[in-house]
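Standup notes
- DV: blocked on the single-chain target, sequence here:
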Amino acid sequence: MKKFLTIIGLAAASLAGVHAQVIYNGGNYSENFDGLISTGNVASVFSATIGTQAGIPSLAGWQGAKIAGTGTSATNFTTDTGSSNSGGLYSYGNTPTSDRALGALASGSNTMTFGASFTNNTTSTLTSVTITFDAEFWRSSTTSVNTLSFFYGLSSTSGLTNSNFLSSSSMIALTSLDVFGPPPVSSNGALDGNLSGNRSAGVTATFAATWNVGDTLFIAWRDTNDGGNDAGLAVDNFRLSAVPEPSAVALLGAAALGAAVIFRRRKLNS
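- DV (later): unblocked, structure below
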């Protein structure tokens, strides 16, 4: 969980409310999750009602929700070193350091999802989005390789909103950004996700999306309750960038070239 520079060209949304989102002004957005809680928990953050979203404490624009499970009580947002086998969302890391990762562990009682929303506040339609992150493993599984499955979608498509995107069937799967856990073991337990053997650094993919000005791009990782004891899987050092449609890029390049030619001519004639 290396330290990253703060967001470039971006204004963060309010911390409060499920409708919080990130205002994307272009450039590079980065989140290292080190602002998450490093001790204890925030009680009863996520409703027991399936599909009810809530903001992740101290993380602007990011939300979580329960998507399956028989549990009837709200779940906490909790710090963990990988020692817990209870279903929920976690601020993973070694105690008591501020070096954190955002992750999930599924159970029959609670299976969770988490994600973020980004509103295009640039002056151009963005058509190519690149996401990069480090996948970390904080607890092993016993029966199968567990997966956090990645999905994305746009507010202009199929009614996606800031209050329904985490569990919406309109989201598009992109397996190249899935988090694949470690091989199962007969008796599972805590792992140190900061060690090279317990992480996949630099997971990255670029995908096409017609992200119009004012539209919101939604991303999410969804957990699944697998057989046996599940793994604790997390995302760290998240980065997102996007570029305009080729015609806009070409126009900008032509304008810059034209300005350079005019400047050179004036300089030669002076």
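- Follow-up: Residues 10-244 form one domain.
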